[in-house]
Specification:
The complex is a heterodimer of chains A (about 575) and B (about 100). With about 575 residues, chain A is mainly α. Chain A is built from 17 helices and no strands. In chain A, helix 9 runs antiparallel to helix 12, helix 9 packs parallel to helix 14 and helix 11 packs antiparallel against helix 12. The longest helix of chain A is centred in the N-terminal third of the chain and has 36 residues. Chain B has about 100 residues and is an all-alpha fold. Chain B has one domain. Chain B contains three helices and no strands. The longest helix of chain B has 27 residues. The chains are: A mainly alpha (about 575), B mainly alpha (about 100). At the A-B interface, helix 9 and helix 11 of A face helix 3 of B. The structure holds copper (II) ion.
Chain lengths: ~575, ~100
């Protein structure tokens, strides 16, 4: 970019990039990162570590798919048990639960509400160390012998029969839980007490509402997980009969307690992604979100009613049929607030001026795939049909449509939407769109055949299968390879963009949220002056009025955000 | 966030009440009330826990928001216990005996 100015463009560039000001270069060296109390830097620490675990979990997924290429299986059955358990444990506890809240929530919630940091910065850093400790324990459990129970640790197998690292894995999950509890406490206190002047509850971005509901679920559900794995450990070590019927225990009690956490945990994984989708649908349709209050309240409704449906995982156990009826009905009810969100997103798109940039592609992908995942969940919530498809690939396909099609699509959409804000660099749009489409095709090819496999009766967690299922399994493995390539491209160009990407503008999408009214990347204090909010959420105004608040200005550079072409030339 | 100073007298009174509750639990263990023994023991334990939460954990002197969150936690614990117990109570009511 050229402009008539006496200041050499190099200096202007340095200042525009905020070399003296932004959070990324405010302190150098490993120590400045490992002892930071800045929520933005902690978010970056989480981004690096969560991504590493995601890649590892993905490698285990590919090994599972390689095993299933041939009917008799490529690996011995007990190796296969360890592979799918490692995949499940890593993806659930080390990727899906912390991904959106600990990375994007951590980075954005204080900025979105106009605060300087979270309420408890040291506790925030502590939560990352606890997460890393849990990661180390789980890695040790996985690589020093493995775990063969599946990520659900059903008793009495896990307490009385398994010869694998059940205790260590239980400890890892116990520790990981405290990391998310600390994040949850931080979010709740921050949202209650640290909103900027004028930032009323109903001016909060929907991303913040979604995280409020998520934090509520985290704080109420995670302690039950800690109790459950503790009881499991007590039975395994001391042989006190809690869950094992041979010792007078009740195995279904374990399932009750486990799913009291793990069903709401689905919402810990998907609610924050829904918050992202609300943001990117509104911002890339350049239009006020349709039904703001309905979307905000549906997050809370999902958080609350999500606690009353856990028994749909127990339909084929000895759970009381009367309780099963109630759980089936309530599971149908909890679909309503999710549907409200989908309708409101669709209505927001209607007559919007839609940019088909990568975040929007991920948003549309989310809506389509989450819809399929949600609707097939209703199949599973039906008492009769569940007897046929319980513990088959139908279930696997269903929850991967929710977890990958929902959470991962939402996470990647959010990562692209805020990548420039977080790193100060733009991702390459062409490659990003191509990678998204490759992922979408690969994902559907992986998991759609699994619906058919499950309906035909292929059970989950089996290392071998009858030859007539091979065609569908090969299709699924082919899809997984394509999905893996698509994700690999994304990882590659995001890393590439850190050095070579264009400088990101303050407000590339012309969006009204507070995070767009500070520089990219933001200064350590987030804003140059305390923001006073006088506008409603998603109030799209002419671009000139949405300037960086209190920015001292760069000689030779505009203080207004640059809209055209998403930024300035490097 | 206001700090409320609780007098020593209050603390000792609560402590004595807790000791009395413990004594009562022991005494009731020797009275045969059949199924009701567990109910009585849980009621005494619940009362003692409430005293600890209200006075020792300062919830009595906290904001309404804090009180609401404490209540929410217990409502959730109640949901877990009550719904799970519903299973145990109605499991045997089968229409078709296997
Ligand atoms: Cu569920």
């Amino acid at each position: 970019m050229s402009s008539a100015t006496a200041i050499p463009s190099e200096i202007a560039d340095v200042q525009w990039n905020g070399e003296r000001l932004n959070y990324l270069n405010n302190g150098h060296g490993l120590k400045s990162w490992l002892l930071t109390k800045d929520h933005k830097r902690i978010a970056i620490l989480y981004l690096i570590s969560v991504s590493a675990f995601f890649i590892l979990g993905g490698i285990f997924a590919l090994l599972i798919r390689i095993n299933l290429l041939v009917p008799q299986g490529e690996f011995p059955a007990d190796t296969y048990d360890r592979l799918f358990t490692a995949h499940g444990v890593i993806m659930v506890f080390l990727f899906l639960v912390p991904a959106v809240p600990a990375i994007l929530g951590n980075f954005l919630i204080p900025i979105m509400i106009g605060a300087k940091d979270l309420a408890f910065p040291k506790i925030n850093l502590l939560s990352w160390y606890i997460y890393m400790l849990a990661g180390v324990i789980l890695l040790y459990a996985i690589f020093a012998g493995g775990i063969d129970t599946g990520w659900t640790f059903y008793t009495p197998y896990s307490t009385s029969y398994s010869n694998s690292n059940v205790l260590l894995a239980g400890l890892g999950i116990f520790v990981a839980g405290f990391s998310s509890i600390l994040t949850g406490i931080n979010f709740i206190v921050t949202i209650h007490t640290m909103r900027a002047p004028g930032m009323t509850w109903f001016r909060l971005p929907l991303f913040v509402w979604a995280h409020y509901a998520t934090a509520l679920v985290i704080m109420l559900a995670t302690p039950v997980l800690a109790i459950t794995v503790s009881l499991m450990a007590i039975e395994r070590v001391t042989h006190v009969g809690i869950f094992d019927p041979a010792m007078g225990g009740d195995p279904v009690l374990f399932q009750h307690m486990f799913w009291f956490y793990s069903h709401p945990a689905v919402y810990i994984m998907v609610l924050p992604a829904m918050g992202i989708v609300s943001e990117l649908i509104a911002n890339l349709s350049h239009k006020n979100i349709f039904g703001y209050k309905f979307i905000a309240m549906s997050s809370l409704a999902i958080g609350i009613f999500g606690f009353l449906v856990w028994g749909h995982h127990l339909f084929v156990s000895t759970q009381s049929v009367y309780l099963g009826l109630a759980f089936s009905f309530l599971s149908y009810v909890v679909a309503i607030p999710s549907a409200i969100k989908v309708f409101n997103w669709t209505a927001t798109l209607f007559k919007g001026s839609i940019s088909y940039d990568t975040p929007m592609l991920y948003g549309l992908g989310f809506i389509g795939l989450f819809l399929i995942g949600g609707m097939t969940g209703l199949f599973l919530a039906a008492l009769g049909l569940d007897v046929q498809v319980h513990d088959t690939y139908f279930v696997i396909a269903h929850f991967h449509y929710v977890m990958v099609g929902g959470s991962l699509m939402g996470f990647l959409g959010g990562l692209h939407l805020w990548w420039g804000k977080m790193t100060g660099r733009e991702y390459p749009e062409y490659w990003a769109r191509a990678a998204m489409i490759i992922q979408f095709v690969g994902f559907n090819l992986t998991f759609f055949p699994q619906f058919i496999l499950g309906y035909l009766g292929m059970p989950r967690r089996y290392a071998s299968y009858p030859p007539e299922f091979q065609v569908l399994h090969v299709l699924s493995t082919a899809g997984a390879s394509i999905l893996g390539i698509g994700l690999g491209i994304t990882i590659f160009y995001l890393l590439w963009s850190l050095k070579r990407g264009k400088r990101a503008a303050a407000n590339p999408w012309g969006a009204p949220g507070l995070e767009w009214r500070t520089t990219s990347p933001p200064p350590t204090e987030n804003f140059y002056e305390t923001p006073v909010v006088t506008w409603e959420a998603y109030e799209f105004a002419p671009i000139e009025t949405m300037e960086v608040l209190g920015y001292p200005g760069d000689p030779g550079r505009p203080t207004q955000p640059v809209h055209a072409e998403h930024g300035t030339e490097d | 966030m206001s700090e409320h100073i609780v007098s020593k007298k209050t603390y000792y009174t609560v402590f004595l009440a807790l000791l009395a509750g413990t004594a009562l639990t022991v005494v009731m263990a020797f009275v045969n009330l059949h199924n009701w023994n567990i109910v009585v023991a849980l009621l005494i334990a619940g009362a003692k826990a409430s005293l600890v939460i209200a006075f020792f954990m300062h919830v009595k002197y906290s904001s309404k928001l804090t009180k609401m969150w404490v209540a929410v936690g217990f409502i959730w614990l109640f949901l877990l216990l009550a719904i799970t117990m519903t299973d145990f109570l109605t499991r045997a009511w089968l229409v078709y005996k296997p």
